[in-house]
User: Fold this.
Amino acid sequence: MEKAIYENDTLKILENDSTSIYSVEMKRPSMMLINSLVKTKLIGSSMVAKKYSRLKFKASSVKSLTQFHQDQQIKTGSSCLSISVVANMLLTLSTQLNYLIQEYSHTIMGYTEEHIMVINEDTFVVVCDEYFTEIANSKIQIRSPFTKTDFNVSPEMLKIERLPTMVHFKTSYFSLGCLLLLCLSTREELYKEYLMDKKVETLIEGLDGRPIKGTKLYWTILRCLDEVAKNRTIILI
Assistant:
């Protein structure tokens, strides 16, 4: 018997308790999304239905990042995720992002916990293509209204006054770096503080007190959060 474990406006994820088979049912078929999961081997032992409307795969567990975060807090007693977990989050999410950029000339406009699932407790993937956006001449076009809490917003996105408008495609790097930082920080209101004063330094200060400064993960996050969008880089660690 299948039961729904996750659902939003674009897809539903079902679990079969007896077989450990999970199904992703697309309300709008997305070859790009499914290939970013399968071709990268982020999801293994999978079967894709015709017209990319359904993906079946075997896994020991599948849960939302929000649920994973809550489970880790109960397990460790800490509100932030461990450095090793966040480093693995960077590895798997950037693998998917790089595939989209290289193979489809698309990026992810913004990252939010609600669109990320955790497979087998160690693979983090975006399962919703709502914020997938085409890249043209290193720019993406922002056409639809958004709020500052829909996803982690870059400084250039905060400055948008009218639509449509163009921003550098590396706005996604900032959003991903922000997600990683927020998972590491113990300051629950950190993102709200950043939105209020619109200073990237506010985010960086959120790492104070964490044993991360000087590590490869620390420098990767800093490069993602560069205020100059074209200077942002993601280097796998």
